[in-house]
Amino acid sequence: MRPSSVLLQISKTAKAIKQQPLVVVSSIGNPEPQYLHTRHSIGHEVLNELIPRNKFSSSPWPNCNMYRGSSSEDAIFLQTTGYMNLSGQYLRKPWLSIRKEFPDREVRFVVLYDEMDKPLGKYQLRYGKVSSRGHNGLKDIVNKYGNGFYRLGVGIGRPESRKPDDVVNYVLSKIPRKDWEIIKTSVIPDVLEIIRGLR
User: Fold this and answer.
1) CATH code of 134's domain
2) For this UniProt entry, which segments traverse the membrane (predicted)?
3) In 31-133, where does DSSP find H-type helix?
């Protein structure tokens, strides 16, 4: 292949990448190790399956770990390390910084979180100005950043009791092994396909 043809191919590839949306997947939950493997941190658990734990690196932003591929066409993965109720505070700066880094590309932000309104083994993808359904992590993101992001809720179901204390105890309890196996087989493969579909 002639040098001019090689340069043309490189130019076309670079243009295609530039036009391809960049997907930024962010999981929210509570800090480890205290809340490791709890229902409320199911977003972290799912993200840990997508990206091996030892692949995360420190980032320029506090309370947020990051993993990014070796090329600009790869997705970027973020994982908050602080408390759920401050998720918007932790994600606002990284999201704005990533938008600034890629001014010519559409950036699609996806938040992985626990969804009580969906039964175990189910999930739901929503976008824009939709209800946070009482989820304080989502509320804080909306308050700090706005509604311009995808919500990918992983179903954890609800306890039989609707009493506030019982609900808190439920979401902060450990995920039973049998429940986690259902999530691994029924949800995580679909989450991967959703991420690929957004690119």
Assistant:
1) 3.40.50.1470
2) none
3) 42-50, 87-101
